[in-house]
Specification:
The complex is a heterodimer. Chain A is an alpha/beta fold. Chain A has a single domain (19-319), classed as Alpha-Beta Barrel (TIM Barrel). Chain A contains 13 helices and 10 strands. In chain A, strands 1, 2, 3, 4, 5, 6, 7, 8, 9 and 10 form a 10-stranded mixed beta sheet that branches. In chain A, strand 3 (108-113), helix 5 (120-136) and strand 4 form a beta-alpha-beta unit. Chain A is globular, with a radius of gyration of 19 Å. The mean pLDDT of chain A is 96. By secondary structure, chain B is mainly beta. Chain B has one domain. Chain B is built from 1 helix and 3 strands. In chain B, strand 1 and strand 2 form a beta hairpin. The longest helix of chain B has 6 residues, at 28-33. Chain B is flat. The N and C termini of chain B lie close together (9 Å). The chains are: A alpha/beta, B mainly beta. Chains A and B meet through strand 1 and helix 4 of A and strand 1 of B. The complex binds iron/sulfur cluster and zinc ion (2 copies). Residues 67, 69, 71, 74, 76-77, 114, 146 of chain A line the site of iron/sulfur cluster (SF4). Residues 42, 44-45, 47, 62, 64-65 of chain B line the site of one zinc ion (ZN).
Chain lengths: 331, 71
């Protein structure tokens, strides 16, 4: 057993204290033959500090495309020649999407908009949409609307939005290579306001943007410092027309190393499979990650791309004897 | 594309993923990618379509040729 896994066993598994940057880096650098041991330990950590339940979520795009920001991985930026066109979802379709999501047994429904931050029109849509969902569907509503003002944070709390997603995307030192229209610190400011408001903080990012393995470790500990309730882990799905459109996808083994390492950095967080797992990990790898530290999934489609059918993921959870977290357990 | 209602049924002239001529070049990578993506270009006229992805499906609308939906 490599030394770092021995250390992780006493520090993370037994005491619940996450690995520091050097420790995370050591896990990210483990040779292939040690990856199963790292995943096994990460799974034990997840079972010990989070339990066997898996949190299931659906997401939907309320406003797609035409974003003024330049996140180099994103097909929804209006600054690239991406084929994604701007489109708004109406309230009946939004409620229908929430119903479809609830039908899968999901407890979370996240409403997402491709914006720098909400304007009055978007906040009005949110007010109407969240009220309609809460009246008709038994599901918790989360939101991801970019950078917020304090007044907008307060308004979302008032609407009953219980969790807010705002990804840091990558570590602080690499961020300027990926986004130039706003800073990592601006994102951090929104996250701080969200946390102080009492909403749950959901913050993760994307691996495979060209960051080094050291920068992946840096990112894991920066997230750990934020201590988010949930961390969605995406793997780059290179989108045509974006500056990162020609990047290779993350190797499956590297993705699994990262899953184990992020779990060992954050023993108590909800670590969620988000976009890109189908491409990077396929069916077999998806299973390895669920047995290696992941304890939440996005089911069904993403914002501009498609996922596996929700039924496939639910069948896998059933087979792995991992109960889907019930709504009563989240209230 | 699995159309419904007023959807396009004409022969696909254009690749619905990359927007290039369907009969020219190799679109096998496009076809593979389309398993995890909705269409983006109208196969009849090459216009970029308004695409809405929902948790359990998608719809794609060409202003000229109507709306196609996932089956
Ligand atoms: S802010 Fe969001 S929607 Fe806009 S370009 Fe960046 S990732 Fe895409
Ligand atoms: Zn093509
Ligand atoms: Zn057309």
């Amino acid at each position: 057993m490599p030394e770092i896994l021995d250390l992780a066993r006493t520090q993370v598994l037994e005491r619940g204290v996450g690995l520091d940057e050097a420790g995370v880096l050591a896990v990210l650098r483990l040779p292939d033959e040690c990856v199963p041991d790292a995943l096994q330990l990460a799974h034990e950590v997840r079972m010990r500090w989070c339990g066997p339940e898996v949190e299931v979520e659906g997401i939907v795009s309320l406003k797609t495309g035409g974003c003024p920001e330049d996140c180099h991985f994103c097909s929804q930026s209006g600054l690239f020649t991406s084929p994604v066109r701007s489109v708004w979802l109406d309230i009946p379709a939004l409620v229908e999407a929430a119903k479809q999501t609830a039908k899968t047994g999901a407890t979370e429904f996240c409403i997402v908009a491709a914006v720098r931050g909400p304007d009055d029109r978007l906040m009005k849509q949110m007010r109407e949409g969240v009220a309609a969902i809460r009246a008709e569907v038994d599901i918790q509503v989360a939101a991801s609307l970019g950078m917020l003002s304090q007044a907008q944070v307060d308004e979302l709390v008032e609407m009953g939005v219980h969790r807010y997603n705002h990804n840091l995307e990558t570590c602080r030192s690499y961020f300027p290579n990926v986004v130039t229209t706003h800073s990592w610190e601006e994102r951090w400011d929104t996250l701080r306001m969200v946390r102080d408001s009492g909403m749950e903080v959901c913050c993760g990012g994307i691996l495979g943007l060209g960051e080094t393995v050291e920068q992946r470790a840096e990112f894991a500990v920066q997230l750990a410092e934020l201590d988010p309730h949930e961390v969605p882990l995406n793997f780059l799905n290179p989108r045509p027309g974006t500056p990162l459109g020609d990047r290779p996808v993350v190797e499956g083994k590297d993705a699994l190393r990262a899953i184990a390492a992020f779990r060992l950095a954050m023993p108590r967080t909800i670590l969620r499979y988000a976009g890109g797992r189908e491409l990077t990990l396929g069916d077999l790898g998806t299973r390895d990650g669920l047995l290696g530290g992941i304890n939440a999934v996005i089911v069904g489609n993403y914002l501009t791309t498609l996922g596996r059918p929700a039924g496939d993921d639910l069948a896998l959870l059933d087979e792995l004897k991992m109960p889907v977290k019930a709504l009563s357990a989240t209230l | 594309m699995t159309g419904k209602g007023d959807a396009v049924t004409a022969a696909a002239l254009w690749c619905d993923r990359c927007g290039e001529r369907a009969a020219e070049g190799d679109h096998s990578a496009c076809a593979a990618a389309r398993r995890l993506e909705p269409p983006r270009y109208c196969p009849a006229c090459r216009r970029r379509m308004k695409v809405q992805v929902l948790p359990a499906g998608w719809s794609a609308t060409c202003v000229e040729h109507g709306t196609a939906r996932s089956g």
